[in-house]
Design a protein that fits this description.
193 residues; mainly alpha; Tetracycline Repressor, domain 2; 10 helices; elongated
Length: 193
Amino acid sequence: MTTTLTDLAGPGPLPDQDARTRVLETAYRLFYRHGLRATGIDRIIAESGVAKASLYRHFPTKQALIEAYLDVRHARWMDWLETRLAAQASAAQWLAALPDALDDWFRAPGFRGCAFINGHAEVGSEAPPMTVQHKRELAQRIERACREAGLAGPGDRAADLLLAVEGAIVRAQMEGADAARAPLQRAFSRVLA
């Protein structure tokens, strides 16, 4: 699977998809664009073109649908990141190219920040575990690159880089990609020096 920036925004369902996929793709697009709480089941049913009974057969609760959406979002986002950075010949180059990859995402049509940050902020303690798990896996991926690049203290460096990434995501969502680009580059340069 190769995920594109369009896939991250959620293009929506296709007529030839089965009912479960149409519901999930509709929820994916709506949850990302409008939020978990603001998106009602009736809207998902209407826009997916499936019957209510069919939706509930595949997703017995809205929470189950949210969890499925976050699982798909995680898989797509991580796939997009790895695909975007696959051309880097070394872990050091992978790390150095990460801010540019994120800048591409920030500038993509439909960018609305991080689905996991947004979801956790919306529902707090009721947030599905994937809102935190996604961040842990991203931290682990960054730490692995730091270790492979031979950097001292790879765990601490990864934590610093993840904090810079998270701040840049929020800043890009609030003020646009230009506001996040230079500070993210500077933070990466300092941590990787």
